[in-house]
Amino acid sequence: MPIYFTAELFQFLARLRRNNNREWFLAHKDEYEGYVRQPALRFIGDFAAPLYEISPYLVADPRPSRGSLFRIYRDTRFSPDKRPYKTHVAMRFSHRGKDVHSPGFYLHLEAGGCFAASGLWHPEPPTLLRVRNAIVSRPEEWRASRKLLNWEDAGKLRRPPRGFPADHEFLEDLKLRDLGTAVDFTDQQVCSPRFMSIFAATCRKMSPVASFLSSAVGLKF
After folding, report:
1. Which three-class secondary structure state does DSSP give residue 175?
2. pTM of the full predicted structure?
3. Which helix (H) or strand (E) holds 83?
4. Helix (H/G/I), strand (E/B), else coil: 32
5. Tens digits of residue pLDDT in 86-108
6. How far, in Å, are 74, 162, 186, 200 from residue 100 at the CA level?
């Protein structure tokens, strides 16, 4: 079993955090390619087969740009934080043609903060309404899926959303603005030759949430 990620990945990201400027990054771009970008693209390409077994409708796209790997460059246009680079690695495995806000799988790598996640993060109001309607209309299916929810939702509504009963069984879920689940990994797990199988098993475990949310917004899973 291949090893995709090594301690050098985390070391590079830590150094980038201390030297988050264009001059330093360009001087160390070979390290970024060798320890971060190329291993991530290989991982994405190899994850296509395990992902297909979980859901044939999700995509692992290993293209260098506009694929599953997020850009290292931050969008600073509307942010007071002008640091040019992200100091983590992120990958998405979503429905073809859909962005990160669709309910697929997400992988986040940074020293001491690696995790996989699935769900809807900050969905638009029409999308959130469709999810709430699905919770009400398919309570048995939601009951099985909701056991996996573990995101903290700081934006949770204080009152029932408009048009929904205040005495509903899943009232607290209907108040949520973000819905999802996440599983943490140690740095050692990420650097293990078993990480591909660990990540695939984690996605399979999270798939009831991804499946319910996908169908709620009209996507196949």
Report:
1. coil
2. 0.94
3. none
4. helix
5. 999 999 999 987 665 689 999 99
6. 15, 27, 24, 19
